Predict the structure.
Amino acid sequence: MLADCRVTQSAREALQRGDLPAAGSAAQALIQARPRDGEGYFLLALVAAEAGQMGKALPLIEQALERDPDNSEYLAQHARLLILLRRDGEAAEAVRRVLERGSDDARTLDTVGCVLARLGDHETSIRPFEGAVAREPGNLDYRYNLAAACGFTGRVDAAREHYEAILAADPGNARSHYGLAILSRQSREANHVSRLEAAAARARDPQDLVRLRYALAKELEDIGEADRAFATLLQANTDYKRQIRYDFAQDEANFDAIEAAFASAGPAASSGLSDASAIFVVGMPRTGTTLVDRILSSHPEVASAGELQAMPLAVKQAAGTRSRQVIDPETAQAAMAADPAKIGQLYLARAAHHRPAGAARYVDKLPANFLHVGHIVRSLPNARIVCLRRNPMDTVWSNFRNLFATQSAYYAYSYDLLDTARYYARFDRLMAFWDRLYPGRVLQFGYEALVLDQEAQTRRLLEHCGLSWAPACLAFHENRAAVATPSAAQVRRSLNTEGIGRWKTHAEGMAEVRAYFEAQGIAID
């Protein structure tokens, strides 16, 4: 038994230092010595997961759970694998079992918090994250996860405290610098500009550098240093675009394929499902989608489910294509052969695990669902769809100045002003296409109109969504639900005109974008 404990410790230590061959050998030895115990299978699963072999890791961890079904550590890691494999419902069930049993292990608690965050339940994630930090206060990754969750849930002071604690221990921690910068508006009297400049000068990792430059640009803009903010953003985006080797032709091919597929589509195989619970809020990012989500979810009959990948994944699954991309020309064409009712069923099954309990309706506010309007209409004909529209120039600038998920193909266009303008033009064209194909199905909802006439536009929004008037929708900024988007700080304030015409501060730098829109016949005023 003592020898087996040493093997277990050896495997775990090898995993911790990243020595996967040694960890794998130790885990195999443990399986040979104690085949009826789960530990060897569990450790071998972790080795496979660290190597990126999720399909291999999952059956191994399931073998561990067969031998020890109530082990909270196994359940938490099982949930993590399931969420990475986009099997959200099973992940939610595994996490529920861990929460019921409890755990004193910091890594297990942090893993539970991360899975809950991926499920969109940021409020519930706070407690396990706090537990992980309490047990290992020096673990900066655990503390960062807690800080981010505090920011998402409006615990601004707590988030700031945790970010500062991380930076005291690791002055170059780029994630924390960025999280702190976007947490609130900075002032000339209180900002982190000098500290950010020093951190950016020391940074060598490209991901760190882009985060630090975005943080610096945001704070420079906050304190009125518009020219320096623009120059910093331009440098950050130019360098990062070069690294990811983005070519607008990739996105253009997707737009072309979607339009061609629906333009030539025959009658749908079925009329879809009758379910009317979903309200899709779509549009270009940074155009007010989070704001509208907050307005709608302030209604007593509506809750926010966040930015779900449920529809893109349902379409991909129904298409049956083997490509790694969720949307590509092959998938766009193949999905047209799928039964719309099947897509609806796949979507509702995936969305169910993200829907807050107790509300009859829910908002799915993934902006990129504008690519899937055709499938939404065909598969869920009673669902309501709202598309946010904002001044094209403000849209381009807001996309360019906000750091999205750097690993997501959805936002690869945003590291170049002209690429973003081209993307907007194709978005605009696709929305016009959907309006011709499905007249009246999508409410084109203007951000500026909402800001300038809040009550009238809110009534229009609620009417389109089949909702009764609710005064609480005018007080959306009092909504305490979590917000996990760059708009978190803005939507906790009442409406104001600060975001209208903001691009004009950088009119000289955006002259080429303006000329492009004028040549395309896209009105900018």
